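Record now logged underneath.
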Amino acid sequence: MLVESLIFGMMVFLTKGVRSEMTEVVGEEGSQVVLPCVCEAAQCDPAAITWSKQSKGTVWKKESSGLQYWGSNWFNRENSRVQCPHSKFGKGDYSLEINRLTKDDAGLYTCKVEIKGHLTNKQIMLRVIEASVSPSTPMWGDNVSLRCSVTPWPENAVVSWMLNRQPFTPKTGRVVGVQASDKLARTWTCSVHKSSNIWRALVELSVAGIIQPAKQDTKLYAALGSSFKMPCVFSPSLSPKAALVEKLDSGFQIFNNFSASSSSWDKSIVIQEVVPENEGRYRCGGTVERRRLSQTMQLVVAKIVKSKKKGTTMLSCQLSDPSEVTSYEWVHVSYDINGTELVGPVQYGQTVPVKEDFGEWTCRYSGTNGLLGNVTTQVHLMAGLSGEKSSGVSSNTGTVIGLSFLLVILLLILAQMYKNHRRRRRILQYPALETIVHTISNEREEREKDRVKK
């Protein structure tokens, strides 16, 4: 009984003033983590601090005298990546910072703080979470493995996956397999659930193939009369063969007012001036490693149509396919005599009445994800002047008709006078004939007189 009492007393003596705590920290590979170690005593200075890692020995140590040194396994090799911020010592913060976290950093760390004989042990379990993809840059159609790892792995943990922050079901588990496509070339998130804790890591899945247009049946918008680039861009690591852009509804490779890029991976086509016939569906395609890759797109042509309604100028924003448009916005821009740009009030709607129909009008059309495109028109005449000119022409119509009638009569009189003149000239050319005509005429008059007398 005496011996047991002595042993119990020695255990109490040895453990007097020692307090131990346990904390768990999870960091994503490549990031920065802070292993917390904060003095909670009323007086924290001077203090002796020792950071150590299980099976790796001392990481960093500071004696109460102020002397500091790194452990042999961390000096030089890790000193630039692992540090204690000395500026916080005066506040009793002895936390350990680790930059560019790696899997090798995972494990159990201990922070020992000794102040005037009182020893505090703080244990920190550092887990490193990582999401990875293999192969790193797959091509369209390749089988891809997405892996989620936590070092050391927590017991009873469950893994789920998200694609662009949306649940990707029914894929669960540390490793999932997918087939590379443009729809899956996005940000993947692996979430590790344990009790009430959730740890996440991100990985980008980049798929080699056609990167522009980014997805099938992409709608592209161009203003009538403008220059436009029809995209057909492959991943820079690829050199596609027989690559071209073709118009699907015509069945031939586009030419006319088009020019092509000379790059081996950029096969885009530039339309020098967009015309209504350019509207329609196109296909960007090419062969890579005996595999045919293609992406479709649709060119939507926008224009502004002017009209008159009850003396008011109307501007209408018209698109060959307005299915994605949710709103129209009109902006009026004019310039004063000094060339200063003046922006008028904004109007809304597909068709708007114009009060200031001089200067520049721009129609901006937007969809659910923001601005789709814009089209601009120039107007040079004011509505008031146009109306007065039209009215003047209408009031002078009667005068014009009357003058035209008088001109016709005058021309007829002149024509008759000319005919008489020509006839007299023909008779004067034969004097003898004229004498005979006069003699006959005189004899006829004499006979008429003799009849009257009888």
